[in-house]
Amino acid sequence: xxxxxxxxxxNCGTPTRNASRCDRCQAVxxxxxxxxxxxxxxxxxxxxxxxxxxAAVAAHRAAHGxxxxxxxxxxxxxxxxTGDHIVAKANGGTDSSDNVQVLCRGCNAxxxxx
Length: 114
Ligand SMILES: [Zn+2]
Ligand SMILES: [Zn+2]
What we know:
Elements: E1 7-8, E2 15-16, H1 23-37, H2 47-64, E3 67-68, E4 76-77, E5 81-85, E6 100-104, H3 105-112
Antiparallel strand pairs: 1-2, 3-4, 5-6
The protein binds zinc ion (ZN) (2 copies).
């Protein structure tokens, strides 16, 4: 007989056999995550772009530290820097390293909403 350990769900504390969250919280969490990020495929991001963006963030951080250049706001300290397309792929932008702009998540989201 196999003993399955139950662990408390990370969100609600209900004992669950899942790795981290109970079925209900897992479903909610995945839904929220998908809404926030969209799938990588939907956004046209692949491994090469992820690496290009990560390299741009690393270079920016090495040169400027945790500092967001700002999008329609003054530059400000930010530790959650991300790389984004300057010209969106939907508008013909490429995944090359000269089409990467480093912004914090907040500025990135604002820019994307434009
Ligand atoms: Zn739960
Ligand atoms: Zn910012």
